[in-house]
Amino acid sequence: MTCRDKLVNQEVLEALLDDYLRHKTLPATYKNYLLRLIEGQVNILVHNLLQKIEDERRGLITAVDGEIFQPDR
């Protein structure tokens, strides 16, 4: 699955949950909390995907332990 597909899936999920919560009888503060939580997760995903794209563009690879190194060319 490409980064774009992951982002689209996350945005679709956010929209579906947003629609579901708008029709659910829950306290407004709880709805707002859940919507902010979902939005925060999407923002984190977008940030991580953009960072991954930038790293790949620059030719960097992130190791499992988080160490970044440049491969031999």
Strand residue content: 5-15%
Give the overall average pLDDT: 75
User: What best-fitting shape do the alpha-carbon axes yield?
Assistant: elongated
As a percent range, the share of helical residues equals over 70%
* Count of DSSP-assigned helices: 2
Order of helices and strands: HHEE
Please give the domain count. Answer: 1
> What topology, given as strand order, has the largest sheet?
1-2
Radius of gyration: 17 Å
Spatial separation of the terminal alpha carbons:
27 Å
The poorly predicted ranges are none
By DSSP, the count of extended strands is 2
What structural category do the secondary elements indicate?
mainly alpha
Characterize the largest beta sheet: strand count, sense, and whether it forms a barrel.
2 strands, antiparallel
Oligomer: single chain
Describe this structure in words.
The protein has 73 residues and is mainly alpha-helical. It has one domain. The protein has two helices and two strands; from the N terminus they run ααββ. The chain has helices at residues 3-23, 28-58; strands spanning 61-62, 68-69. The protein has a two-stranded antiparallel ribbon with strand order 1-2. A hairpin with a 5-residue loop joins β1 and β2. α1 packs antiparallel against α2. It is elongated and about 50 Å long. The relative contact order is 0.12.
